[in-house]
Amino acid sequence: MHCPFCRHTDSRVMDSRASEDGTSIRRRRQCPECGRRFTTVETASLSVVKRSGATEPFSREKVLVGVGKACQGRPVSEDDLARLAQRVEETIRSQGSAEIDAHEVGLAVLAPLRELDEVAYLRFASVYQAFESLEDFESAITLLRAEHTPTGTEPAARTT
To answer: Residue 152: its pLDDT value, please?
Structure first.
């Protein structure tokens, strides 16, 4: 680790602490050359393998942008979106792999998005799962309705 003050190529670790969420380590370092102290934060790298075969670092921001588009005009707050992106990252990291397919990222988005807002879920799923017809939407809506209806019972008839 280069010293940010004098660019010396070595430093000594004085203290190490895990972050509150356990996803990174904060290290307090001291440069043996100039004696100044500085802090570094280390995280495990996570790469996303795209359909083209190219890899890029996982980005919570990209998850937020994609889900944000699906949630446009919906009663979903920025905090809700941030928590969803964190859940997606935790789900992906819990798989224990340093590389993950972009498809897996999309799958990790679907469940928490369905819990957050079903309309946004349908919007996201329609793009992610490449809906091509009304029947694709109908089957997705049928599945959502089936989850709301207790097994073996029909919804009560409306009375006017």
So the answer is: 47
> 């919906």: which residue's tokens?
74
Are the CB atoms for 18 and 69 separated by under 8 Å? no
Tell me the C-alpha distance between 50 and 147, whole Å: 32
Tokens of 86: 């964190």
Q: CB neighbours of 12 closer than 8 A, spacing ≥ 6?
A: 29, 30, 31, 32
Q: How far apart are CA 122 and CA 129, in angstroms?
A: 10
Closest CA to 100 of 112, 91, 111, 110: 91
Q: Mind listing the pLDDT tens digit for each residue in 87-121?
A: 999 899 888 888 999 989 988 999 999 999 989 98
Cα 88 to Cα 1: distance, rounded to the nearest angstrom: 31
Cα–Cα distance, 76 to 113 (Å, whole number) = 10
What is the spatial order of strands in the sheet that 99-101 belongs to? 55-57, 47-49, 99-101
Helix axes 60-70, 118-128, angle to 10 degrees: 110
